[in-house]
Amino acid sequence: MEQIRQYFHQFTPLSDADWLYFSSRLIPESFPKKSLVLCAGQTENYLSFIAEGLVRFFIPGDEENDVTFSFSFAGDFVSAYDSFLTRQPSTYHVETLTDTVLLRVSYTDLQDIYQNTAAGNIIGRHAGEGLYLTLLRREISLLHETAEQRYVKLLTDQPKLIREIPLKYIASYIGITPQALSRIRKRIAGIS
Length: 192
What we know:
4-stranded antiparallel β-sheet; RmlC-like_jellyroll; alpha+beta
């Protein structure tokens, strides 16, 4: 739990009282690899911090036609945040790609934290801003970068964890076929 406190400490120091109030509402939960944390049709009830692991967001199709649109790594917040905020069912799945440990706070508890701690709104704002910035960067990347540039960026930003992601999910994420990704990987290997 100290990992999440350090994350918030970057933005605002948490008093011991605020930290105790917040941390007492965190629910540590472990998920094995390939677990659905949230299914399409369910309403997201948690804002979670990834203590360990790797998560993907995808629109379900048949096995070969899932559309992966985001990944979240250890040290990130993860949530079907649109569903969390609107209290409406999600249109996509959230799945672990590795054994994953989440520190979770429920929607109700987060509202209580906002009301009863000095740092609560700062905590919520930074978690929400982080999720928003991730989505904005993804959108800009899709508009301005080539598939190869998106792959190289993912490889540079998360070199260890990228090995944990099946290539078909990476291909879907960068918007190409697995065969096109194979050609990019061969081209990059030839440059190195």
